[in-house]
Every structure is written in C-alpha cells, then in structure tokens.
Amino acid sequence: MAPDTFPAPSASESAKPFSVLVVEDMESLRSALVAELRHAGVSSVLEAGDGDAALQAFRQFRPDLVLLDIRLPGNDGYWVAQQMRIAEPGDWTPIIFLSGLDNELDVWRGIEAGGDDYLTKPVKPIVLVAKLRAMRRLLDMRRRLVAMSEELHLANERLNAMVEVDALTGLLNRRGFDQRLHSEILAARRDGQPLTLMLCDLDHFKLYNDSAGHVRGDVCLQQVARLLREVCVRPRDSAARYGGEEFALILPNTPRSGAMTFARALGQVLKTRGIAHPDSPVAQWVTISGGITTCVPDESTSAESMIMRADQALYAAKAQGRDRFFSFEMQMDTLEQRHG
Q1: Is residue 329 among the annotated active site residues?
Q2: How far is Cα 2 from Cα 4, in angstroms, rounded to an integer?
Q3: Considering 157, 230, 245, 329, which one is annotated as catalytic?
Q4: pLDDT in tens, 202-254
Q5: How many domains does the chain have?
Q6: Are residues 235 and 326 in the same domain?
C-alpha cells in the first residue's frame, strides 16, 4: 500500500479528532495500515495483535472506528466484534472487517457478528480512505443526532417544569400536584411509610380581594407561597397551589401527630407574618384553615381518596370557625368513641 496513491484529506476532515483501532495479528500488515491511516489524517491510531488486547483497548479508549481482522490467534474477529457490541450498550462504534477471504458467507457472518462493512486484504488505499470518509460522515451525523436528542430532552424537561409550576407563586400547580401525590402514594405504599396530605384555604380571601384589590391579593398569595416553601424543609416535602386561594402540602413519612404539630406551627408562623386583613371576621391578619389526612397507603389508596378525606376535614375546620386544622382520621376516631 503506497501512501502517495491516497487522495489528500480535506482540511475539515483533518481538523476533526478521529481515532481508529487496528486489530491485525500480522505486524507488517498492521504497520502498513497504521501508516495509511496516518497519511489519511487520522489523529489517533491504536494497535492490537489479538482479541484480548483489542477488547482492552476498545474498552479503555473507545475509538471512533475499528478495523478488525477476522483471522486472529485465539478468538476470531467475529467473537471480538460481538464482545465489542456487548461492551457498548446503547452506543455504536463502526466496525469494518478485514479478511483475505472473499465470499458471501464471510460477509454475512461479519454483519451478523455486529460488523458494519467488509474489506478484502490486501486493502487498496483508495478503497480504505473512501470507507474511512464514509464512516466519519456517519459518525458525525450520529453525533449531531445525539446532540439534538440531548437538547430536545433538556427542552422537554424545561417545558414540563414550566407546565407543572404555578406562574404566580412558583409552587407546583394542580397538574404538578396530581403527579407528585400519585408518585408519593406509590413510594409510601412500597416503603410502608405514612403519608400526609394537607389542603389549606386562606380564610375569607374574597373579602381581602374585595377590599384590597386583586393586585394586593396576588402579592398576599405570593407571600403565603414563600412561607409554604420555607416550612417544607425536607427534600421531598412539596407545596402546591391547588386553586385560587387554596394550597396543598404533601408530606412523606409524616405520621398523624407530626402532621398536627406541623399544621399548628404553620398557622402560628402565618400569624407572626402579620399580613393585614381588616375585613376578616376571624382576625385582623390573614389566617389559614386546613384539612389533614394521614395514612400508610395500601392497594385501595388513591390520590382521589386522599384529596376527598382532606377536603372533608377542611370543610369541618371551616364549619368550626376557621383559623384551625382538622384531621380526618382524628375526627373519625372521635366519632367512633362517641358511638362506642
């Protein structure tokens, strides 16, 4: 193989990093191939004389192309190609087989083993460089597709985040809340841990909007949202804007007693913020009412059933004068004791 028979590599091809692993047991042929590849502008050429060395180099350096002799000492090139494919799940490195044999069965076996192309030895330089350029184009195209796929994945993640976030408060919106509650029910069921859901309602918020205006009302909602983010100190605690002035809290691994302590603290902290509400019949500042449900989810537990129980407890808290939290389960325990 004479280097001067090669077409010179283009400037764009020479500028791009490209590595080739040459697997050939005959040192003279391997050296000739390496020389031709370097003349063709290949920036990095790796060499191996048997299958084990080829696999070690492949795993360590991850070349962009493999030129693989079929006849090797020990395991043949077909076996080596299969092991290379196993070593790169989800990825793809072009493999071109080299052989002194030229028949259809060899071509078929090479493709079945994971090869992409086939060259007959002695390899003509003009053919080698043509194959090299074709594989480089395929590799460049694949890299562009992978980059586009990654960009698309990131864009979808950003879009999903935007779709699941309430624009005014920055909390989860109803869609995000539904998905989070469903996933936390599955996690609590799997781990056998208690899960608490709170539905909260700002007391007499319509009167606040009527007197202060909707712009001030939005500011008030943002202040409450910041407070809810502050109290959700554990990584998996989640706060959501459930509706207009309704909020929801998802508290994994929180038993009834812990939920009630959390709720009382939340109500107290909101009072200390002192957001004025002159028209409230409950207090001079903004207060909150809430309904709580806590359970260790089983197969019958659903997001809908937890929301229904929390909503019933919220209704009871409002009926008892607002500015308080009720637990659905504690209410049920009280009713059972009365009728016991």
Answers
A1: no
A2: 5
A3: 245
A4: 999 999 999 999 999 999 999 999 999 999 989 999 999 999 999 999 999 99
A5: 2
A6: yes
